[in-house]
Amino acid sequence: MTEQELKNYVLKLCKNRTPVPKPNGQTILTMSDKVGPNRFQYTFGQNHKKSIPFATLFRCYERLMTDEKLTRLWFATEFEAEHASSPCNFTTIGGIFVKMGIAEYFGNGIYKLTKKKAKAL
Fold first, then answer.
1. Which of 22, 36, 89, 106 has the most beta carbons within 10 angstroms of its beta carbon?
2. What is the Cα–Cα distance from 87 to 42, expressed in whole angstroms?
3. Residue 95 has what DSSP assignment?
């Protein structure tokens, strides 16, 4: 999957206000002009909103594809400032990969690659 295909996939999830699974519940992907073209937004809890740069999503996708896993430890090291301010970005990204059908949550901050092809939206 190319970066543009991944971006289009997530934008479609946002447009449809799609819930994505998280270890302790779910979050809803949403659209907002306020976050700009290089980020996407999600809501959780009582309408709390955060956003994730597409660049972060792409790097996590590449890591999942090459390492066959995505870990919170890697995320915290690779995106230190982002992890410090928005640690739930990790599980939101992991939830997107689960929703796509390319990853499974294995507990303890680990998402593992499945051998399935990504689901069409």
1. 89
2. 13
3. H
